[in-house]
Design a protein that fits this description.
The protein is an alpha/beta fold and 168 residues long. It is built from eight helices and six strands. A six-stranded parallel beta sheet has the order 1-2-3-4-5-6. Helix 3 packs parallel to helix 5.
């Protein structure tokens, strides 16, 4: 199978390139073999589950609140632990509601750490993702937005996300 245009275009951008297997926009955006996302699940997303999904050829999405509060990891150390379990791409879930300034600051810090540690695939939910797109795009990051209804899909698209994930 040949490389898709997105994989070829991504090569110089810092974005991961898709491995041969099942080429789709998702596999090209995330640099994965099969179009499978192991979504972030609070509280049960643990480092081993996230890494196993990535190791299997999909992408595991780490949930920062599960990692830090439920499983007791320092965010950076937990991310590094997952990277020791797999050399394949990992993603991060960014709950982007602006319920409090402190929460927004913490999520911003986690996104910055994830970028420093090489994460380039982000899933946003619960809000308008423009600030995440603006923050990760200069680093070659990709943003997919969880949507439950049309209005959230439109907010994601208006914000420049790379893809949408339909959730119930």
């Amino acid at each position: 199978m040949g490389e898709g245009a997105a994989a070829t275009a991504a090569r110089g951008s810092g974005r991961p390139t898709a491995a041969p297997g099942w080429p789709t926009p998702l596999t090209e955006h995330a640099g994965i073999e099969v179009p499978l996302i192991c979504g972030a699940m609070y509280p049960c997303s643990n480092p081993e589950l996230v890494a196993a999904a990535s190791e299997a050829g999909g992408i595991g999405i780490l949930q920062p609140l599960s990692l830090t509060y439920v499983h007791g990891y320092d965010f950076r150390e937990g991310l590094r632990y997952m990277k020791r379990l797999t050399s394949r791409p990992l993603g991060m879930n960014a709950l982007i509601e602006r319920a409090s300034r402190k929460y927004h600051e913490r999520m911003s810090e986690w996104i910055d750490i994830a970028l420093e540690e090489g994460v380039r695939f982000f899933v946003t939910s619960l809000g308008k993702p423009r600030w995440v797109v603006d923050r990760v795009s200069p680093h070659g990051g990709v943003v997919y937005h969880d949507v439950t209804e049309r209005k959230w899909a439109l907010k994601g698209l208006e914000s420049g996300v790379d893809g949408l994930i339909a959730v119930n």
